[in-house]
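note to self — DONT lose this again. spent like an hour looking for the file last time. sequence + predicted structure for the chain T wanted, 381 res
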Amino acid sequence: MKSLVIESSVLEQDNPTGVNYFTEGIVSGLEANKDKDLEIRYFWLNFLQRKPIKNAYIKQAAKYGLIQMLSLMPQRVYAKLVYANIAPPLPVKKSDWQLFPNFYIWPTLCKAKKAVIIHDICFLKYPQYVEDKNRAFLNRVAIRAFTKADMIISNSQFTTNELTSHAGVSPNKIVTIDIPVDKKTFLPKLNKGFTHLTKRYGITKPYILSLGTLEPRKNLTTLVKAYCELPQNIRNKYSLVLAGKWGWKTESLMELVDQKKSQGYDIITTGHIDRDDKCTFFRNASFFCLTTHYEGFGMPLLEALHCGIPTVAVDIPVLREVGGDACLWAKKTVTSVRDNLEKLVNSPDLQNKYRKLGPKRSEGFSWEKTASKLKQEFLSR
């Protein structure tokens, strides 16, 4: 039997992110397929054990003594020491493998092979799209991880190609896996209905949806301008909903949105949305549009396809990898996004086509398949 220990702090975040979702999916798949060949344990740097365990998988592991709580210091302090490359090794119990889900590797006393998940290399390739503090941190810790890791887990073939061609990582180190949709999140019965969106977010008519943190990488100025150039009859019928919290370097987007709203354009920015509301946003959307400059995978696209939403997405390699033939592709320009949105809105035949193709595309991704591949890599290396 081999043993795998997973650094689990990301599973206990107060405000879950894409990294949290990816990690929980991997854990759910591994736990569902665990057997006598691979023991799965966890460790968590939880200073003085002040934070209660919230994650269901960690609670279950704690019942059987399969989580190691480390009380050395607050994690934010330890992360600064990792950044400075002076962090003391953590006394993690012996295992064959240690898995670190969030770009960086922590030093540990015991000898174990180390695996790290790299979600994208935007911080290297397009530093202007990354928050300054985060970029500085990743430029140190992620690049160190490229060298120290025995296995690098990539979330798409696109990210794998980026790691080999742009970051110089050996292909032999990389394991490429998919990120499936969490089907439980999007069960039709979890749809709270359009009235909920009206009461909570002020959405009063059919809408074109974009979902994710509002930040420069998402290229939302292109989407806003494309929406505002749609024919008036379309704009009269559909709002543009930018669902997600405001991120960093958003001043120009805020100014644009405020200007267009003052001119009468129906653009709604929701701010942070609860995870429980994601299903409702997707299930009630008329259309979805993704204009991003860069993604490691593009989960919102797959979620929209899973829910059968007719979608326009910009034609970049990673989104092609995710979307295949299940959406309408646009160039990364205002004119192309506008024209393709107009084409989709005006064509019931196209809408019906993509409502059928989207869910079929999503079915090709599963946590069972992803976890099975990852498990075999841990057993064979």
